[in-house]
């Protein structure tokens, strides 16, 4: 997931908060995720303020109480490094949510897609990956083995509240 709409200014880029719209959009994305049966047991979230606030609003919208794994490295990570971070999630995790920044999240979603998923989701994701965009993948394997073209895109949604 890409973080939701943030304010244009903050003390630093890392400390930019979500805009009111961002909170609404993230809550809607969370409600949508819950409606399709997504229930994560691990969340990898950039430590930037806007991604933390996105996770909090997504969780509220979905009714989840999961505490995120905040990672400062995810703030500036490229797609390859982000895959490396996902490879480090606990082996017993069955559903992982990653909340990060663009362009990394858009590139990561394109890299993970094995081309066998839902054609409408593939087409929607290929045209844009705006704030509050969520790509839902299926992956059958150990997280440590996740690689390029290693997951099937099942759904794509842009939260708009």
Automatic annotation (TrEMBL):
Top-rank lineage group of the source organism: Bacteria
GO molecular function, one term: hydrolase activity
InterPro entries per the UniProt record, alphabetical: His_Pase_superF_clade-1, His_PPase_superfam, Mito_Ser/Thr_phosphatase
Pfam families documented for this protein: His_Phos_1 (PF00300)
PANTHER family according to UniProt: PHOSPHOGLYCERATE MUTASE-RELATED, SLL1549 PROTEIN
Region annotation Disordered: where it falls in the sequence: 1-21
Keywords: Hydrolase
Organism field: Nocardioides agri
Descriptive protein name: Histidine phosphatase family protein
């Amino acid at each position: 997931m890409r973080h939701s709409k943030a304010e244009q200014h903050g003390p630093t880029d890392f400390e930019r908060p979500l805009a009111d719209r961002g909170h609404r959009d993230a809550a809607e994305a969370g409600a949508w995720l819950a409606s399709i049966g997504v229930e994560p047991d691990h969340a990898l979230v950039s430590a930037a303020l806007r991604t933390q606030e996105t996770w909090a609003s997504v969780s509220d919208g979905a009714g989840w109480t999961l505490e995120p794994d905040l990672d400062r490295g995810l703030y500036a990570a490229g797609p390859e490094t982000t895959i490396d971070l996902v490879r480090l999630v606990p082996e017993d995790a069955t559903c992982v949510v990653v909340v990060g920044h663009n362009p990394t999240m858009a590139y990561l979603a394109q890299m993970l897609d094995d081309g066998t998923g839902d054609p409408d989701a593939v087409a929607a994701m290929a045209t844009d990956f705006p704030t509050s965009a969520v790509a839902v993948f299926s992956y059958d394997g150990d997280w440590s083995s996740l690689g390029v073209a290693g997951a099937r895109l099942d759904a794509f949604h842009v939260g708009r509240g």
